[in-house]
Design a protein that fits this description.
The structure is a homodimer of 284-residue chains. Chain A is of the alpha/beta class and 284 residues long. Chain A contains eleven helices and ten strands. In chain A, the strands form two sheets. In chain A, strands 1-2-3-4-5-6-7-10 form an eight-stranded parallel β-barrel, surrounded by six helices. In chain A, helix 6 links the parallel strand 5 and strand 6. The longest helix of chain A has 21 residues.
Chain lengths: 284, 284
């Protein structure tokens, strides 16, 4: 339970800051920034949590009255050998425990790319399915949902062999036939281009464990990871996407996760003010 | 008909050089380079053809005994206004005529990205369908096949809103229900990541009008267009892809199309020797 109820900005009831957006802020700074901005949710990265440890991190966000909307991230299952895959699974169990300690029910999974030197994409994809199947009972026992993040196909080789919402849902079907634990996170940046997007979101009803937004901004920077922009600065029809997600019955937070050097260089309070303004504009 | 029969290198019977791979070579140089390397096919870009005009280009390749495996490219249908879309359609009719004049039966279509300032992706996709439907009878009358090129989703905003093989085949179904004219070009770089690839290629049987290869090489360069590498230098299982394509009954050429500054800076004869060696290795 939250110790205090922060003052939530009007129209910001379902807005969450993913801490990757304010890369320069330590956890305590991000928490204080959210409170100042009237943003009631926060999505935490494990490195930020590790800085203070899960217990202290939990106390920090709880004392501020914030909701932890997700823990980013588990995954990276596709090690080239059995020992590496076992270590990855073990690390994911720790991530599940951290999520539970932080009071969030959602662990985001970035599933991993091709193993070093491998071209066996179907094999890597099979590895991911097996790992999630193995992790599922542990997550269930801890009351933590596994949110598979399909990533943009430009990250298929080096980051996530799960490339579409449809593929992520197939994995959820296979690893959690009864439902309730394995689902997806819909990240606008990764899925906006998909010709099957509408069908995929419809099919994801009840299994959307997170909704992340940012915008597709061209040209892509030299480091393609950092091409994301503030909502409204790019070419994604985020209003339409938000409507599609809401139509499934999703009532969770909209988490803003932006990897972008310029955003990182801006003062955090400015960034949060932009988040709030764009969020209100999107809803109107 | 070819005036001469060039000496084809052993194992290179179905290899084609796409002229984008040897960017520094004018058409006559590329033709002579193919003859020296024993490469019997050539895929032409319209800018190379325009340098000498379609008639002279046709005579050049014909005199060398080369097969023109494709003309690149038509498309770019998604202008923001009706006048622009009409102009695009007219330009595509010229491209069809050029293809016919060059003796190739395949015009590659790069369909265009989002119109300037637009976020209406379904609308842009509808524009593409309408344009191909309008172009189809003209192409049919000229005996030219329209090869829709699904492009990697990282080019969805600025280059091609056709992002998957499945989507391209849906467009072919809709615009050419009787078949025979509208099909696809399978470009390894654009489709390798697709979880539905196997199903898509199977479904494309009889409608694969071209097969292009190069490799996915990381890191992506600042200009993401130029990240392609020689066959074998990257992370795509091209051998598997070639088997899948051959299993559909495809008996056409394998066209090597590489956009890469280092490849462009290399002497053309070296590049063609690499093409030949990698092609043989792939088949073995």
């Amino acid at each position: 339970m939250s110790s205090t109820s922060p003052t939530v900005g009007p129209g910001l009831e379902r807005l969450s800051l993913n801490t990757a957006t304010t890369k320069r802020w330590a956890l305590a700074e991000a928490v204080a920034g959210c409170v100042r901005a009237g943003i009631p949710g926060i999505g935490l990265w494990r490195d930020r949590v590790a800085e203070v440890g899960p217990e202290r991190a939990a106390r920090l966000v709880d004392a501020a009255g914030l909701t932890v909307t997700s823990l980013c991230r588990g995954g990276f299952f596709t090690a080239p050998d059995a020992a590496g895959r076992a270590a990855a699974l073990e690390d994911n169990r720790r991530a599940v425990e951290e999520a539970a300690a932080l009071g969030t029910d959602t662990l985001v999974l970035v599933c991993g790319g091709l193993p070093e030197g491998s071209r066996d994409l179907p094999g890597a994809r099979r590895t991911v399915v097996d790992a999630i199947a193995a992790l599922r009972p542990f997550a269930e026992a801890h009351g933590v949902k596994l949110a598979i993040e399909p990533m943009h196909p430009m990250f298929c080789a080096d980051r996530a062999v799960v490339s579409t919402l449809g593929q992520a849902l197939d994995i959820a079907d296979e690893t959690d036939p009864d439902g309730g634990t394995v689902g997806v996170v819909v990240d606008a940046y990764h899925v906006w281009w998909d010709p099957e997007l509408e069908r995929g979101i419809e099919r994801a009803a009840g299994r959307i464990h997170g909704f992340q937004v940012c915008d597709w901004v061209l040209p892509l920077p030299a480091d393609t990871l950092l091409g994301r922009g503030h909502v409204g600065d790019g070419q994604v029809d985020l209003a339409r996407l938000a409507v599609l997600v809401a139509a499934t019955g999703y009532q969770g937070f909209t988490e803003v996760e932006i990897f972008n050097q310029e955003v990182w260089d801006a003062p955090g309070d400015e960034t949060l003010a932009t988040l709030a303004a764009r969020h209100r504009a999107l809803a109107s």
